[in-house]
TrEMBL record:
Highest taxon above the source species: Bacteria
Protein name: PAS domain S-box-containing protein/diguanylate cyclase (GGDEF) domain-containing protein
Compartment(s) of residence: Cell membrane
Organism: Marinobacterium maritimum
Span covered, complete protein: 701 to 949 of 949
Biological classification of the source: Bacteria, Pseudomonadati, Pseudomonadota, Gammaproteobacteria, Oceanospirillales
Ranges where the EAL domain occurs: 1-249
Length: 249
């Protein structure tokens, strides 16, 4: 049984760790960034976020945990970017509980403390996060982008945002949900949906990131369709920071 006190102790004892899943740029054939994904090194081994993020959200602990994630991701990103010629972007997941005006202060603090270039920080939000308060979200996204950071819409196509919201929310990236990628190239519906998302995004000047890219066939299709970036087991699973560093060499 996972208890609130255990989660609180985990934060105090610094038992959380970020893994980084590489993202590859199709046009330049290179590693260009990553998504940071939290893990908990608990007393009985590695605990995945699905098992503790919901409790962290219910108890409000996601606020200090989320602030730690932001600062840790920026700290690590700054280390990488001091060592590489081509910049590496780092994407951080933001839950609905965190998506409130104070998030601007938390992001600014993480950038200030670490010196990380804001242009290399991406916040991943889902459609449901934005849709719970559309006007508030439009304002908050605007304030976040004024910090110079980028915004990605996660799990795109699975929520209930309509295409009209792509106009209202100022977004830099769309992450095509892996449930659409999975069926490529056999499933004609998945093929149609994925190429349409890529086309719409290109016309709106939004970058596309395919999630859950697992096969050579996925890659071939996505490259031909004009998708910008890919992330998935075909390339790498989420990696501890030192293994990600090895990928940069
Ligand atoms: O590997 P994976 O099991 O890492 O991640 C599962 C889910 O947990 C993903 O949907 C992701 O959005 C969420 N998640 C991972 N890391 C974080 C984090 O740092 N903050 C929040 N809010 N969610 C995260
Ligand atoms: O934030 P988001 O919900 O997109 O979280 C990404 C999740 O997807 C993480 O749990 C990560 O471990 C998982 N993942 C990453 N690449 C793949 C993949 O190629 N296939 C599958 N099935 N899952 C993946
Ligand atoms: Mn994500
Ligand atoms: Na996703």
């Amino acid at each position: 049984l996972l208890l609130e006190s255990a989660l609180r102790d985990a934060l105090k004892r610094e038992e959380f760790e970020l893994y980084y899943q590489p993202q590859y740029d199709f046009s330049r054939n290179r590693l260009c960034g990553c998504e940071a994904l939290i893990r908990w090194n608990g007393p009985d081994g590695l605990v995945m976020p699905d098992r503790f993020i919901p409790l962290a959200e219910e108890t409000g602990l996601i606020i200090p945990i989320g602030a730690w994630v932001l600062e840790e991701a920026c700290r690590q990103g700054e280390i990488w970017n001091r060592a590489t010629v081509e910049p590496i972007s780092v994407a951080v997941n933001v839950s609905a509980v965190q998506f409130r005006p104070e998030l601007v202060v938390e992001v600014r603090n993480a950038l200030d403390v670490t010196g990380f270039d804001p242009r290399q920080l991406v916040l991943e939000v889902t459609e449901s996060v934005l849709m719970s308060d559309v006007d508030g979200s439009v304002r908050l996204l605007q304030q976040l982008r004024e910090l110079g950071i980028r915004i990605a819409l996660d799990d795109f196509g699975t929520g209930y945002a309509s295409l009209a919201y792509l106009k209202r929310f100022v977004l830099d990236k769309l992450k095509i949900d892996r449930t659409f990628i999975m069926g490529i190239p056999e499933d004609k519906d998945d093929v149609a949906i994925t190429s349409s998302i890529i086309d719409i995004a290109r016309h709106l000047n939004i970058m596309t990131v395919a999630e859950g890219v697992e096969t050579e066939a996925h890659c071939e299709f996505l490259r031909a369709a004009g998708c910008n970036l890919a992330q998935g087991y075909y390339f790498d699973k989420p990696l501890p920071a030192d293994e990600f560093s090895n990928r940069l060499q």
